[in-house]
Specification:
Layout (H helix, E strand, L loop, with lengths): L1 H19 L3 H11 L3 H5 L3 E10 L2 E10 L3 E8 L2 E7 L4 E5 L4 E6 L2 H10 L15 E10 L2 E9 L5 E7 L5 E10 L2 E15 L2 E11 L6 E10 L25
Antiparallel strand pairs: 1-2, 1-13, 2-3, 3-4, 4-5, 5-6, 7-8, 8-9, 9-10, 10-11, 11-12, 12-13
């Protein structure tokens, strides 16, 4: 009887913990709601984000454009020159004038990994099961003194992301990534802040990204977020390079 009493007492003591314990799906649902809710998120057909970045004292402009369901184009602009990467839902391509290449070229599958994730306009947490990802709650962790839920998201492509969600706001404070690039695991992290509302949705207007543990991170400052702006499919399609015309009267 004494043992029975202890069992019942223990169940009563730990009942509040069991009641308040949240599953990973419940936490992800609150993250979606914190961003504005699934209905508003699904209403975004296109988005354009423009701003500035600073890397080692070098400043540049940046642009990201997305079109549902899976198109993305990203640019970095320095002194009028733009380095571009784009994915049209099938192939990824890039133009890098800073590397001496002004013609578009196909991207390798490894280099394309992060770009295809960026092409997901809702982000990989939303409908993660349908996308072939796996999520699990691995506990709590701290980001600069703020308690966070830590979610491990194993992506369909084999990469892993750890999301650190503020336990109060449920918004992302940090994302850590583990990516296999040409047989080597690379670790990176991005810190998020300055969330602002745009048409009922909340976006980070300041974030920093770099190798995990490296304090020299690329700093991004968003100037504008535009939702449902007209974006032609041709923006994401790899341009056709026309062969140079042979001079008239040339040797046969």
């Amino acid at each position: 009887m004494f043992r029975t009493f202890l069992t019942i007492a223990a169940a009563i003591v730990f009942l509040p913990l069991a009641v308040h314990a949240q599953t990973v799906d419940e936490i992800i649902a609150k993250n979606v709601q914190a961003h504005g809710g699934i209905e508003k998120m699904k209403g975004v057909q296109t988005i354009r984000i423009t701003g500035k970045l600073d890397v080692g004292g070098i400043r540049a402009g940046f642009l990201q454009e997305n079109k549902r369901p899976d198109k993305v184009r990203e640019e970095q602009i320095i002194q009028g020159l733009a380095a571009s990467q784009a994915y049209d839902g099938k192939i990824g391509w890039q133009v890098n004038p800073f590397g001496g290449r002004r013609d578009p070229e196909l991207m390798s599958q490894d280099d394309l990994k992060s770009l295809t994730i960026d092409a997901d306009i809702d982000g990989p947490l939303v409908d993660y099961k349908e996308k072939g990802h796996r999520a699990e709650l691995v506990g709590h962790d701290s980001v600069e003194g703020t308690d966070c839920y830590k979610i491990k998201l194993s992506l369909k492509n084999g990469d892993v992301r750890y999301y650190f969600l503020d336990t109060d706001s449920f918004l992302e404070l940090k994302i850590e990534t583990q990516s296999s690039i040409r047989g080597t695991i690379q670790y990176a992290e991005t810190y998020f802040g300055d969330y602002e509302e745009v048409k009922g949705l909340y976006y980070s207007f300041a974030f920093e990204s770099g190798a995990k543990g490296d304090s020299n991170r690329v700093k991004f400052a968003v100037d504008k977020v535009e939702i449902n702006v007209p974006l032609e499919d041709s923006l994401f399609t790899m341009p056709v390079v026309k062969p140079e015309a042979k001079p008239a009267g040339g040797a046969q």
